[in-house]
Structures are given as structure tokens and as C-alpha cells.
Design goal:
single chain; 362 residues; alpha/beta; two-stranded antiparallel ribbon; 12 helices; 13 strands
């Protein structure tokens, strides 16, 4: 499965469906897309799709005393409104994305050609919805806040059997939650248990915008989600949401984490020349323990090791003793450095190695 679509992907969820205002939604897209471009990151702006008439039972649609029903009723949008938002997201340079909460909303994801579909934590074991999403064959990100291990195992197996790219977001489904509730070690758990899938972090903490993303990236999370909002219209902003300036801080913290973590974690890094130069000052060079004639085969009693290592001098790394060791091609006096050109050895015929030996040391 191709997981590249998830690599270093930021998913920016528009909080509370931008209060059901198309104008406000467009403003959120505009303001946050600018921050995305300034920070040169790859981001999706995510909407929430609900067909309210089918999602809420008809006998409860007017129950404004039920908080959740009140919220989704007040943030209702038409399909035409969604279409305008999707187009605005595309034009902004971001990836349009949605969380569908019902089967009809999945159809809208297909109709609007959403590249990725998100499954909310609450729906991580809603198998009818998941089956419908899988039929689209689109890559899927699932948040697993409050999801049992068995349900996670079943879901991973389900998508693996269908060869559908899947990312799992560690998530604490509390809005907001405290720093001590982040449980970022769960990223380690998810990476170990599901090594063939991208692991991400969906965050709802609210005290700072730097620490958690840097830790999460260092632990191997490669997709990240935050809620976004604006306050320029005077509307109250949820604690767990990021304003454009806070999003800028978040992205810069990510870039800082990438810089600190460096190159691949799957192979040995390229050794820095200044690193080599520094360590070479501590390598012991080979010195003659007594006067030695031409043709002498070096034995342990003939040499000693000490710093500093001098240019052209062999070090403890190259020293070979005994029958298959070094033979002198020139005489040497006691306490003198034994240099590569004084020896009959395979090293002396390797020009590249000789250049390394002559560049290092004093």
C-alpha cells in the first residue's frame, strides 16, 4: 500500500463546522491557508459532512436541550455550501478532506472527489459506515481515541485485507485535555503493533503549540491533526482550536523538530566531516618502540600507541601485527611515527585510504 499520501500531512479541522456559516468557513480557509503557504507544509483542510435529516432521528431534531443535537442542527450546511468550501480549499493550495458521519455524507466525499477520508474516533467501530467508506477505495485516516485494542486490530485487518492505505491517529477524545493526558507513548505502542501503517497524532491540548508536536514527531508520528478557527468576528473560540498565529507557531515547532531529528531513522546517517575531524584528534597513532630495520615484520613489542596522531601515520585502527601484519619498507628510529608509506601492506596500495590517512591528524 502506498502510504506516501500521509507522510508529513497536516489535517486542519474546521472547528464546529465554522458555526454553520459559509462566509465564516471561507474566512477560516483563507486565513489558515496563508499560514500553510508561509510555512511550506502540506496540509488538508477538513470539513464535517452530515446529512442532518437522516443523522438525527425526526423525533429529536427540535430538542435543543440536547447539546450535541443543538450543535449539529445549528451548524447545518447545504450541499451547495459544502461544494463552495471544497472549491475554496482546492484553490487555496490545500487538500480538501472531510469526516463523513453517515452513509450519504460518504457519497458526498466521492462526488466532491476528496483524496482522503477521515473516520472520527466515535465511528472507529461503526462497521456499516466503515464498510461504505471502504467501498470508495480512498485512503483513510482513523482517530482511535477511546477505541479498544480489539477494535483497532479488527479495523487494521479490515483495511489491510482490502489493500486500502490506512493511517491511525493517536488521539485523546477529550475537548480539550490537559498536557498530562496527552499519552504520547501511545505513538510507540501503535508503531510497534501496526508497523505497516502510518501513525499520527490528533491533538486537543491547549496550553502550548510546540511541545506535543515535537515529541510526537520524534516518536515517529507522521500525520498531525488540529482544529482551526478564527476570532476576528468576535465569536468564542474553543480552547482546543488554533488561531492562525498559533498554527504558525505549531508549524514552526514541527520544522524545528525535523531539523533536530535529522535524516533517516532506517539507515546509518552520513558522517559529518567535522565529526570525523574531531574524533581523529583522539585516535592513538602507532610509534616505534625501538629502532627497526627495513623488512622487519612488526610485532607487539615493536610498537606503542599514543596521541597525537600525525598526518600520514597509521593508527590503532589500521595496525596489523604478526605473520600477516605490516612489514617495513624503510628503517625507522625509536619514538618516530610509523607512516603508511613505510609499510608493505594492502593499505598502502589503496590511494583513497592513503589520502584519508594523510588528511587526518596533526
Amino acid at each position: 500500500m502506498n502510504r506516501d499520501i500521509f507522510e508529513n500531512l497536516f489535517v486542519l479541522e474546521v472547528t464546529n463546522n465554522h458555526l454553520g456559516s459559509l462566509e465564516r468557513g471561507l474566512k477560516i480557509v483563507h486565513d489558515h491557508a496563508r499560514i500553510v503557504r508561509f510555512n511550506n507544509v502540506r496540509a488538508a483542510i477538513k470539513l464535517q459532512f452530515r446529512d442532518v435529516d437522516s443523522f438525527v432521528h425526526k423525533d429529536f431534531r427540535d430538542r435543543m436541550d440536547i447539546r450535541y443535537i443543538k450543535r449539529i442542527s445549528e451548524t447545518r450546511l447545504s450541499k451547495a455550501d459544502y461544494a463552495m468550501l471544497v472549491e475554496a480549499i482546492r484553490k487555496s493550495g490545500c487538500i480538501p478532506m472531510a469526516t463523513p458521519f453517515d452513509e450519504k455524507s460518504v457519497e458526498w466525499c466521492v462526488e466532491f472527489n476528496m483524496p482522503i477520508i477521515k473516520v472520527a474516533s466515535a465511528d472507529s467501530n461503526d462497521w456499516l459506515l466503515i464498510e461504505r467508506i471502504a467501498k470508495t477505495r480512498k485512503p483513510v485516516i482513523v482517530s482511535v481515541g477511546g477505541t479498544s485494542q480489539k477494535d483497532m486490530d479488527d479495523m487494521v485487518t479490515f483495511f489491510e485485507n482490502r489493500n486500502i492505505p490506512l493511517a491511525l491517529n493517536h488521539c485523546v477524545a477529550a475537548y480539550p485535555h490537559e498536557d498530562f493526558e496527552c499519552e504520547l507513548n501511545q505513538i510507540d505502542f501503535l508503531r510497534q503493533r501496526y508497523p505497516n501503517h502510518t501513525i499520527g497524532y490528533s491533538c486537543h491540548e491547549y496550553h502550548d503549540w510546540t511541545t506535543s508536536i515535537q515529541i510526537a514527531y520524534g516518536k515517529g508520528a507522521r500525520t498531525f491533526e488540529r482544529h482551526i478557527d478564527i476570532d476576528s468576528d468576535g465569536a468564542a473560540v474553543a480552547k482546543y482550536s488554533s488561531l492562525p498565529g498559533q498554527l504558525d507557531t505549531w508549524f514552526k515547532a514541527f520544522h524545528r523538530a525535523v531539523t533536530f531529528c535529522g535524516t533517516s531513522g532506517h539507515e546509518r546517517k552520513q558522517i559529518l566531516q567535522k565529526e570525523t575531524d574531531y574524533l581523529d584528534t583522539y585516535i592513538r597513532g602507532v610509534y616505534a618502540a625501538r629502532d627497526l630495520p627495513v623488512g622487519h615484520q612488526l610485532e607487539e613489542e615493536d610498537v606503542y600507541l599514543a596521541i597525537p596522531l600525525q598526518k600520514g601515520q597509521i593508527s590503532t585502527r589500521e595496525l596489523m601485527l604478526g605473520k600477516f601484519g605490516h612489514k617495513l619498507t624503510a628503517p625507522i628510529v625509536r619514538d618516530s611515527p610509523i607512516k603508511i608509506d613505510m609499510l608493505d601492506t594492502p593499505y598502502s596500495s589503496e590511494e583513497a585510504l592513503k589520502q584519508v590517512i594523510y588528511r587526518r591528524g596533526l
